[in-house]
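Minutes, project check-in
Item: structure for the 235-residue chain
Input as provided by the requester:
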Amino acid sequence: MSLVNLPSCNLIASFIFCSFFLLTLAKTVQPGTYWYHSHTRGQYPDGLRGPLIVETPDSPHKGKWDHDLTLTLSDWYHDQMPGLIAKFISYANPTGAEPVPNSALMSDTQNLKVAVEPGKTYFFRIINMGAFAAQYLWFEGHTMRVIEVDGVWTDEAEADMLYITAAQRYGVLVTMKNETSSNFAIVGSMDQVGRAKYRISALPRVFVSLFLFSFFPFTSSVKRRVLLTSEPSLK
């Protein structure tokens, strides 16, 4: 979804367009995990983006999860896009080398804490909203059960790690361990090689975002952590 060159003063037209878009999407597009973003002037890497979830009461996997959470992955540039784009299309960049991200984010933040209940199954809707880099994702000590890919329900399939390229989405089920004595990390590691096409040689050795069920003493500036803490089951 993008509103390119729509006059900002025309609020009524904007409202009608957005309402029509969402109504059409709900009626004609299969439910699932999507995202919206700007398609003009490099705005979305600077933050004009977000998840777009289309719910349905008729999922083929209905009843398999207790709670659902949306988790986004992204690369992040310390400089804004207008300046980076100017350098990218400049004669001073004859090879067309893309701007290299400075860091990685998870859910557009750092040090986020999310409480989970032991023994419960969570449906994680995972979206790579990055501009350039793919990311590896895994849940330490847990197995993912993939049930959705790019807005399409799939047969359930187990996975220990996912490779998620920019704009790609996965829906996975993760069942928490039925105890509170240990915590575990959800790890997002930015691909520094560029598996499909690129070699991102300017990246530091690895960018890591951590979605934690525990805490670890980090000192590296390229590591990100999100605290996911286990709580006793609610009665």
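Outcome recorded: The domain at 63-230 is CATH 2.60.40.420 (Immunoglobulin-like).
No further action items on this chain.
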